[in-house]
Amino acid sequence: MRPRGPIAARATLGLAILTLLLAGLARVEASPQATAASQGMSDPALARSDYIENCGGCHGITGSSAPAQVPELRGRVGYFMCTEETRAYILRLPNVAHSRIVDDGQLAELMNYVVYVLGKDSVPAGRAPFTGPEVARERRQALSAANLTDERARNVAIAMRECGAPATLGAMYDPR
């Protein structure tokens, strides 16, 4: 026989609320790791640290370099995940391809931090994160002798045409 009455009803209600709260907390706790893994980062803290040490001086710690004449990353760099050609472009940039980070997997994680964390919603849906083998392949073809202004303009045009990137991507930073 089940106990009845206001005390039993309150206990049952309290237990149900506690169960829901704990389930919600478990989901919140699991979320950052699941998100990081789906974005190609096994260690997001290391990827962030690598970014700050190797890129943050010019591009800004938060990816905002404005008003410097260095491309702003925040909310924009993800558009370059648009096509195979634009993906290769950002891996072939001299400061990426010739990075002091020699481990291709670690550099892939840094670049995944750049595009998924700093680039935020600019990454087109369904684009896979960078991998170590992809970084190894592309960094061997660094744009060391290329006119980087022309290369950027060409790749911005591709991202605008193929993925609807905004025209402001052509500017070093969003003037808004």
UniProtKB/TrEMBL annotation:
It comes from the Bacteria. Residues 42-118 form the Cytochrome c domain. One of its GO terms (molecular function) is heme binding. Keywords: Heme, Iron, Metal-binding. The keyword Signal does not apply. InterPro entries: Cyt_c-like_dom, Cyt_c-like_dom_sf. This is Cytochrome C.
